[in-house]
Every structure is written in structure tokens, then in C-alpha cells.
Specification:
alpha/beta; Rossmann fold; Dihydrodipicolinate Reductase, domain 2; 2 domains; six-stranded parallel β-sheet; six-stranded mixed β-sheet; 11 helices; globular
Length: about 325
């Protein structure tokens, strides 16, 4: 029997959120919490992610905060790290075990991007009926994704995305589409590794080209040990190339869209606004009790991640 959504009990109060992290190279517990709670500039300088205080200081607080929810509890694998995040992002409570959040919060932010840990960490909250935002990528293969969806107590309980899906600078305007014509090919590039960062270009590209399922053909490629990725053709005839450049090469996150009339290039530039828009949509979905993370879109995204992951490394199968 489906559990009644917990959030129906809180129609007017500020939602209480619990945040879980960290994973290597990922500062989301700091940045996401600050978007809800504001932050302590001195403590945030010590977060270990220099870019975070730089984009936070460009915002006007408290106006920049999401007003309808607060991060009230935090757990990380290290109590000292939890305490540091709490000081930096004004979080009043640290818990010793992540399952202790059940009964103390209205929703959960799973701010780890090491997808292999998502099932074990999400399971107690899904079974308890808590809405959960799962950081990208939610899973590295469709099998693991289906295991998570099987735990949902109600449609829309799971929210997941790359925040770049919400980046306005990675969307085509009406005039851009007129300039491009019918889209034929999309070429997207992102730094760092495929399994954690390819999703940052996959989801914005799917926003641009629409639901192109099914995939007709795909092939991985290797230019160097660092520069590699996935070529794909959808049944519609639209083709795409998704490239990751590894940790040794830096580049802007860029999407070039080519069509029958011309081309247009999009470059990601505003981390704060993308994060805020994604977090706001999660909270709004809880308030409105509707689905903000379309499972079909998520499955298509994870299928592309899986194709790139498994084919790059023949010994890796999910």
C-alpha cells in the first residue's frame, strides 16, 4: 500500500530539509544549503571549493534565498565536515546517522554524485514516503534506476536532474530556433569524467531536441585518454556527440546546435541560478504535489549515460 505523502502535512509552514553528502569533488552540501539558508562568508571561505563563495558573494542575500524551505539537518560521512558545512550554511542540526533524518525533516536532498551509493542512502527515505532530490546522475544504468523507482510510494516522490537542465543560457530561444531551422546535429562538451559529468550536457541537449526516443544507434569514441564520449543517432534522424575532457583538460560547458538553416552555440555561465531553479522546482513540486522530474526523461538520460559507461569500459557492466 502506498504511503501517504508526508508533505501533505505541511501546507503552510516552511519545509524542513535534510541534506546528505559529501562525495569527492562535490561541494553541493555547501552551495545548496546556502541557497535555502544564506551563509556565513568567513566559514564559507573554508569550504574547500573556491568557486562557491565567489558566486555566492555576487548574489543579494537574503533576497536570493528560497523562502519556502530551510535546510535544518545535515549528515555527512565525517562529523567534522558536517559541523563545518553547518557553520558555513547556517544549518542548526547535525545528525550522527543519516536514517535519523526520518521523522525530523519533510524532504531530503541527497547531495552525493557517486551514484553507486544512491540506493542504500535513498531507500529508508523512499520507504518512509519522504520526497527526495537525488543528485546527478541518479544511476549509471537503467537497472539501478528501475530499482529506485520501484521504491516510490507515490508518483513524483523522486526528483533528480543535472541543475544545468534549468540553465537558461543552455536553452534555445524562439529566435534561436528560427535561426537554426530543423535541428540535425548537436555537439556538446563538458570537462571531467563521463560517469559523473556527462549528465550535465545530456539533459540540456534533451531539453533542446525534445523526446527523441528510441535511440537508433550509438558508438563510443576515444580521441585521447581524456577526450572521449558518445556518438548517438535517434530514430528521428537527429544526431549528437557528447564529449567529456577528463580532469586534465579544462573547457567551458558548451552546446553547439546545427540545423538546416544555421547554427547556434550555447555556453554555461551561471551556476547559482541553475542550482536555485532546480531546488525551487523540487520544493514547488512538494507543495503542489505534482511530478517535476519526468521518469521518461530521466530514463532516456540514464540510458545515454549507460551506453557511454559500459561501452567505454567492456569490463564494466551495471
Amino acid at each position: 500500500m502506498a504511503v501517504k505523502p508526508v508533505h501533505t502535512m505541511y501546507p503552510s509552514e516552511s519545509l524542513r530539509l535534510g541534506i546528505l553528502g559529501l562525495s569527492e569533488g562535490n561541494g553541493h552540501p555547501y552551495s545548496w544549503s546556502a541557497i535555502f539558508n544564506g551563509y556565513n562568508p568567513i566559514e564559507m571561505e573554508r569550504c574547500g571549493f573556491p568557486v562557491i563563495p565567489r558566486y555566492l558573494e555576487r548574489q543579494k542575500f537574503p533576497d536570493a534565498q528560497i523562502q519556502t524551505a530551510k535546510v535544518t539537518h545535515i549528515w555527512t560521512q565525517d562529523a567534522a565536515v558536517s559541523a563545518q558545512v553547518a557553520r558555513a550554511a547556517n544549518i542548526p542540526h547535525c545528525v550522527e546517522n543519516f536514517v535519523d533524518l526520518v521523522g525530523q525533516v519533510d524532504a531530503v536532498l541527497l547531495a552525493r554524485d557517486d551514484a553507486q551509493h544512491h540506493f542504500e542512502m535513498a531507500e529508508p527515505f523512499l520507504r518512509a514516503g519522504l520526497p527526495i532530490y537525488m543528485d546527478k546522475p541518479i544511476a549509471l544504468c537503467r537497472r539501478d534506476l528501475d530499482r529506485l523507482y520501484a521504491l516510490e510510494c507515490y508518483p513524483g516522490q523522486i526528483f533528480t536532474c543535472s541543475a544545468l537542465k534549468y540553465a537558461q543560457e543552455l536553452r534555445l530561444s524562439k529566435s534561436d530556433r528560427t535561426q537554426v531551422g530543423d535541428i540535425q546535429f548537436v555537439d556538446a562538451i563538458v570537462p571531467k569524467d563521463w560517469q559523473r559529468y556527462a549528465i550535465h550536457i545530456i539533459e540540456p541537449v534533451l531539453n533542446i531536441v525534445g523526446n527523441q526516443s528510441p535511440i537508433l544507434w550509438s558508438q563510443v569514441f576515444h580521441y585521447t585518454a581524456d577526450i572521449q564520449g558518445l556518438l548517438v543517432e535517434w530514430e528521428s534522424g537527429v544526431k549528437g556527440r557528447f564529449t567529456t575532457t577528463g580532469n586534465s583538460l579544462q573547457c567551458p560547458i558548451t552546446i553547439r546546435v546545427m540545423g538546416t538553416l544555421g547554427w547556434h552555440e550555447l555556453t554555461f555561465s551561471d551556476t547559482f541560478s541553475a542550482f536555485r531553479a532546480a531546488l525551487q522546482d523540487f520544493v514547488d513540486g512538494i507543495r503542489n504535489q505534482d511530478i517535476r522530474s519526468d521518469p521518461d526523461f530521466v530514463r532516456h538520460s540514464v540510458e545515454l549515460v549507460e551506453r557511454g559507461s559500459a561501452l567505454w569500459n567492456p569490463e564494466w557492466f551495471c
